[in-house]
Amino acid sequence: MLKRTAVAVGVIGLLAALVLAGAWLWGQGTSPAEAQSSTGQPTYSPSEIITVVGQGSVRVQPDIVQVTIGVDTTADTVSQAVADNEEKMTAVLAALEKAGIAEKDIQTTNYSIQLDNSQVPVPEAGSSATPAKPVYRVSNMVNVTVRDLESVGDVLDAAIAAGANNIWGISFSLSDPSTAQADARVKAVDDAKARAQTLAELNGVKLGPVMSVSEIVSGGPVPLAATYESAAKGGAISPGELEITYQVQVSYFIER
């Protein structure tokens, strides 16, 4: 009797072990996605995604303008060219200050001294004429930020009257672009979702949640240029509008 009981217990234990082993092997052969799908919940695979680039843009009025103002002088000697340049630039800086430009908004961007032979005539062959002396050119450039757009013409006229003879690179921008960038960002994300939804519908699949998002860095507004003549006339400069753009790359899961 004891022997039969022992045999029965052994058989039951063996069957239990086989059942557990079978359950383990079934679990190993079933993918997580299949196991999850058996519960009726959506499944997602990193290999099944829709990736789009969304773009948003807003137009705003600029509130500051930046312009490069410079003084170029030439002389037969370095010391004279430097002295002339310093005198004129001192007058230009004083004129800018009088026009309401703060010292923090004036920054030197270039100062150079060069030997300029381009204007020196070459004596003809056999001529006994003494070769002309080369001239030295001194250039001093400052970047000026004007925070009152209504005064741009007056500021440039004042600088020119004080001796500035090189004006270029006028560009309009925002002192604080964060609000405009935030608005453009929202539009970019909405645009990305709309594009992804359209692609999903065209391909007969269902759009799932976001898998990844990355920002695409792009350039800022293109600066407008102004010539010396147009700057001297003041009112010929127009700020127009700025377009702030933002791009994002978004990947969505395809829902199964």
What is this structure, in a nutshell?
The chain is α+β, with helices and mostly antiparallel strands and 256 residues long.
Explain what this protein looks like in three dimensions.
- With 256 residues, the chain is of the alpha+beta class.
- It folds into two domains: 49-61 and 177-255, Protein of unknown function (DUF541), domain 1 (Translation Initiation Factor IF3, 2-Layer Sandwich); 64-119 and 128-173, Protein of unknown function (DUF541), domain 2 (Alpha-Beta Plaits, 2-Layer Sandwich).
- Helices cover 38% and strands 31% of the residues.
- The chain is built from six helices and seven strands, in the order ααββαββαβαβαβ.
- Strands 3-4-2-5 form a four-stranded antiparallel beta sheet. A three-stranded antiparallel beta sheet has the order 1-7-6.
- Helix 3 (78-98) packs antiparallel against helix 4 (152-162).
* Biggest sheet features: 4 strands, antiparallel
Shape: elongated
CATH topology of the largest domain: Alpha-Beta Plaits
In percent, how helical is the residue content? 25-40%
Order of strands across the main sheet: 3-4-2-5
The named CATH superfamily of the largest domain: Protein of unknown function (DUF541), domain 2
Task: List the uncertain runs.
Answer: 1-36, 221-234
Known CATH architecture of the largest domain? 2-Layer Sandwich
